[in-house]
Amino acid sequence: MRIVGVGCGPALLTPRAAAIVRDADEVWGSARAIELAADALRPGCPIHEIEDYRGLRDLPPGAVVLSTGDPMLSGLGYLPGEVEPGISSLQVALARLRIPWTRVSVLTAHGRDHDEAVGGAVDEVGRGRVAFLIADPAFPVGLLAAALAPLGDGIRIAVCERLGYPDERIAVGTPGTPPEPLSPLFVVLAGRF
Question: In the sheet where 156-161 sits, what is the strand order?
Answer without folding.
Answer: 104-108, 130-134, 186-191, 156-161, 169-173
